[in-house]
Design goal:
Blueprint lengths: L36 H5 L15 E7 L5 E7 L1 H5 L3 E5 L10 E2 L6 E2 L5 E2 L5 E7 L2 H9 L2 E6 L6 H5 L23 E9 L2 H7 L2 E9 L11 E6 L5 E5 L4 H12 L6 E5 L15 H11 L3 E4 L2 H7 L6 E9 L5 E11 L7 H10 L10 E8 L14 H19 L3 H7 L20 H10 L33 E14 L8 E11 L2 E7 L9 H13 L3 E4 L17 H28 L4 H5 L2 E4 L2 E4 L4 E4 H5 L3 E9 L18 E14 L4 E12 L6 H20 L33 E4 L16 H18 L5 E2 L3 H5 L2
Parallel strand pairs: 1-14, 10-29, 12-13, 16-17, 20-21, 27-28
Antiparallel strand pairs: 1-7, 2-6, 2-8, 3-7, 4-5, 9-17, 10-15, 11-12, 11-14, 15-16, 18-26, 19-20, 19-25, 22-23, 23-24, 26-27
Length: 802
Amino acid sequence: MALNPRVATVPAGTPTKVTQGSQTKGGIGESTLRPDGTLKVTGEFAYSSDMWHEDMLWGQTLRSTVAHAEIRSIDVSEAVAMPGVYAVLTYDDLPAAMKNYGLEIQDTPVLAHGKVRHHGEPVALVAADHPETARRAAAKIRIDYAELPLITDEASATAPDAVLVHENRDDHHIGHVPHPNIVHRQPIVRGDVAEARRRADVVVEGEYVFGMQDQAFLGPESGLAVPAEDGGVDLYVATQWLHSDLRQIAPVLGLPEEKVRMTLSGVGGAFGGREDLSMQIHACLLALRTGKPVKIVYNRFESFFGHVHRHPAKLYYEHGATRDGKLTHLKCRIVLDGGAYASASPAVVGNAASLSVGPYVVDDVDIEAIALYSNNPPCGAMRGFGAVQACFAYEAQMDKLAAALGMDPVELRQLNAMEQGTIMPTGQPVDSPAPVAELLRRVKSRPLPPERQWEVAGGEADVRALPGGLSNTTHGEGVVRGVGYAVGIKNVGFSEGFDDYSTARVRMEVVGGEPVATVHTAMAEVGQGGVTVHAQIARTELGVTQVTIHPADTQVGSAGSTSASRQTYVTGGAVKNSCELVREKVLEIGRRKFGSYHPAWATAELLLEGGKVVTDGGEVLSDLVDVLEGEAVEVEAEWRHRPTEAFDLRTGQGNGHVQYSFAAHRAVVEVDTELGLVKVVELACAQDVGKALNPLSVVGQIQGGTTQGLGVAVMEEIIVDPKTAKVRNPSFTDYLIPTILDTPTIPVDVLELADEHAPYGLRGIGEAPTLSSTPAVLAAIRDATGLELNRTPVRPEHLTGT
């Protein structure tokens, strides 16, 4: 049986090579369906919260009720005495010398010690035979707090007499920050802003506020820890980065990494919120202490405290331009609130600073980005990762500048749009396609949706098409349409010198007379569709039809994090690399098997195409079933993209990023100016994806990211009380996310301009649409209302002045 229905025929004398790509059904470029899709939409998919184990205990976390306080005492006696309680743990019960963890800076205690630094910080753990018993036992733990002064903003964080959030900092950033309550600072200085400002005919300034968002994934944090006979533990968990979790968990447990075996369980979304640890260490500690499997599942309320959020930000911008619209300079300062612990704040600062100019050519810049330590909730990775906050501000500035110049806002953007060869403010050249002007042209040229779509026959109104929707607040009175545009730039992959690589193990063998490939990686499938793409790559590179995706675990090399739009690029590259090495080994087996009685095998150049091993004359020597009969080929290989370097800490210069992605949006909104309600009618997007490996999945990612940006624009914000630093809306009752009724029409225009440095020419896609969708909606609302609207999300009171 051949691996591919094509039979390779090559004219005699034609030079041959190993081909890349095939016509195998379900290969690269096809819209193959997700293998987990049906299970998820029918409710049959097993998520981590669905796991069960015989004789399983339930874990519960007790969290602080105040944001900043000294812990005077903890009394667990009542909890320990409760029937059904197997263990109660506090900081003093931790087994190893290492009692902190963190992605980059190990500043986060497993359980609070000495003091708590934010509302909802874990203080104690309980394991019991029933979840309600565990919850009641945790409520019986008595903690005596002595509240301390709060750090809630830049003024309180950097005041001369400011309380230090972390008294004994010793991380590698402390040497270059102006105050210990600043996590990281990144300036970028290029050219002469003062001189450029003198050349400017128009200068516009703006101060912008970006609210704190939650990732709002639909599957709360959960996992199951099972103690093993060798003294180790097996952890089944929903996460974004198995090996990063392992690196942080093992030292706290006092175990070597090989005794902490991790397997990915069903993940119900992530968006950055699962990059940091949540319940992983806690479940393992309780399992090892009790000798029983322990399951922890957060409810929605606890989930709001159990993971990091998107950094809220204040952004101060100045743009200058000549009378004909050419940008002269940019000056900006970005202040991100990182909350109580560092998490990914240093990397978010680097992204915000290096992408703060946007996809535009500006030779003279003076940029500063910082992240604060505060007693607000910890913030870290979320889709867009620093670039979202910057895009909101620089796109508002472009509209403001266009108005001051009397120019069309799209034409102003196109006039200043970067392209391949542009030098970034960091001094790095853009060495792959950057079709910024073309993306804007495409969204602008798209026909606008019909006006007054709520009007139906008979004079009635379809209230679902109106601001306020089914609340039936208006029948069209006071409703005004607005149109707005935005474009953004996002880096792909980890930056600033991070050794960003992935690993894949590919096995090929004959099973039941048919060739089968197995792909094993540690990639976290969090809903992005990597399991589909990996199978497509294997079919394309090996010509097989049957591909098995092995469950992700730590028994294979690291795949890095499912974040930064990097997995298809990096782990896809690793799968492709491993498949190519498997092909080479198959050829070696063929030579060994047939070389002795087939003289052409040893002398002719060989071609593997369509599953056939052939000579350059096209004669079929054997199909791969014969070659592999009784043997299996397995290869584990890494794939690294080209190296990056850290930004200079004084000037910000450096080749810090691997690749860039670009998306543009046109938003059409209708605003009830009397009630302050917004209906987003359409969010058209154009995006360059390099190569659409799975077109259906690509469109889904773009539409998902666009919808998330819509939420940021008009509804999503974690409200933190400025006086107490407590979260006021930890539920989906009060923290609103878009539903199907809020989601507009999202037409997508996909460009495929290959990046020659990337596998198949692909470009990471998941984050870019989240950038530009938010400022496009804000621009449309401004167009409808004439209001300045310098904060997000926009609330009704911002539109009505009430």
